[in-house]
Write a structure and sequence with these properties.
The protein has one domain (3-216, 251-272): Alpha-Beta Barrel (TIM Barrel), CATH 3.20.20.100. 41% of the residues lie in helices and 16% in strands. The protein is built from 11 helices and 11 strands. The strands form 3 sheets. It has a 7-stranded parallel sheet, covered by helices on one side. The protein is globular, with a radius of gyration of 18 Å. The model has no long low-confidence stretch (mean pLDDT 93).
C-alpha cells in the first residue's frame, strides 16, 4: 500500500450542508506546534512542508483552532497555503484560552468569541471562515449565548457554517434550534465509543462527524489490531482510520502529525477496506477492553 499511489480522494466525499464537499480523510494540524501545543514548531520549514504535502495527497479539509499555539497553527497554515487552492476548506475553532503549555481554560463568552473569530480571520487571511466550531461549551456561560454569538457572526458574513466540538446530542439539538449545525467534533475511535449514538444522530441529520484521537484503540485492542494490520500489509493507524471510515458515511477523520512519513501513512488508509468480520472483531475487542 504505497502512499505514493493513494490519495485522500479514495476515501470518498462528505458534505457540509449543501454547499461544501470534501474528501473524507482530512488533516488535523494541531501537532504542528511546540511541546504542550504551545509556541512554534521546532522545525518551521518541516511544518510548512507537511501542510503542502497534505494537499498534494488529495487532502482538502484542514482542521485547526486559535488555541493551538495559541495562534501559531493558523499562522502556519496561512504561510504554507495562502492563497488557498479552490475547494480547500480550513476549519477552525474558538472557545479555549491558553495560560501556558498543556493548560486550557474555557471561555465561551460572546465578547471572547467575537474577538476569536476576528483573530482567526486575520491570521488565516480570510474574509470568511467556511467552517467555524465552538471548541467546547463553557459551563460558566449559557450555551445559547455562545451559539447565538456565532449565529450573529454568520449573519454578518464572517462565518459560512457553524459546527460544535466536545458536545452531547442534547447540546447539538439545542444549538440547531438557533442556527444550522453542519459538524460535530468529539473524541471517538473504535475503542472509545461514548459518542456512538451521536455518530448515528449526525448521519441521520446530515451532520459531519469529525473524530479526534483516532488511534486510541491501538492500546485497547492491540493484538487484534496488529493481526488485522498484518493481514492487509498495513499499519495499526491505517486500520484504525479504516474502521472509522467504515463506521459511518458521515465520518471525517482528521489524523494529525508533524511527520511527513506518518502523513503519507495516514492517507494510505483511504485505500484500505476491512472485511466485515475484521470490522466487527475490532469493535468487539475494544468493547471487551473497555468493559
Amino acid at each position: 500500500m504505497s502512499a505514493q499511489k493513494v490519495s485522500a480522494m479514495q476515501a470518498g466525499t462528505v458534505s457540509f450542508g449543501s454547499e461544501i464537499s470534501v474528501h473524507r480523510l482530512g488533516y488535523g494540524a494541531m501537532r504542528l506546534t511546540g511541546s504542550g501545543i504551545w509556541g512554534p514548531p521546532k522545525d518551521r520549514k518541516a511544518a510548512l512542508t507537511v501542510l503542502r504535502r497534505a494537499l498534494e495527497l488529495g487532502v482538502n479539509f484542514i482542521d485547526t483552532a486559535d488555541s493551538y499555539g495559541p495562534h501559531v497553527n493558523e499562522e502556519l497554515i496561512a504561510e504554507a497555503l495562502h492563497p488557498y487552492q479552490p475547494g480547500l476548506v480550513i476549519a477552525t475553532k474558538g472557545g479555549w484560552e491558553r495560560p501556558g503549555p498543556d493548560q486550557w481554560t474555557r471561555n465561551g463568552k460572546p465578547d471572547h468569541l467575537r474577538k476569536a473569530v476576528e483573530g482567526s480571520l486575520k491570521r488565516l487571511r480570510l474574509d470568511r471562515i467556511d467552517v467555524y466550531q465552538l471548541h467546547v461549551p463553557d459551563p460558566a456561560v449559557p450555551f445559547d449565548a455562545s451559539v447565538e454569538t456565532l449565529a450573529e457572526l454568520k449573519r454578518q458574513g464572517k462565518l459560512r457554517m457553524i459546527g460544535l466540538s466536545n458536545v452531547s446530542e442534547e447540546q447539538v439539538e439545542q444549538a440547531r434550534r438557533i442556527v444550522p449545525i453542519v459538524s460535530v467534533q468529539n473524541r471517538y475511535s473504535f475503542a472509545h465509543r461514548e459518542s456512538d449514538s451521536l455518530v448515528d444522530y449526525c448521519e441521520r441529520n446530515g451532520i459531519v462527524f469529525i473524530p479526534w484521537y483516532p488511534l486510541e484503540g491501538g492500546r485497547a485492542a492491540g493484538d487484534v489490531l496488529n493481526r488485522v494490520a498484518q493481514a492487509h500489509g498495513a499499519t495499526a493507524m491505517q486500520v484504525a482510520l479504516s474502521w472509522l471510515l467504515q463506521r459511518s458515511s458521515a465520518m471525517l477523520p482528521i489524523p494529525g502529525t508533524a511527520s511527513m512519513e506518518h502523513l503519507e501513512e495516514n492517507v494510505g488508509a483511504a485505500a484500505l477496506r476491512l472485511k466485515d468480520e475484521e470490522y466487527g472483531e475490532l469493535g468487539g475487542a475494544a468493547g471487551r477492553a473497555q468493559g
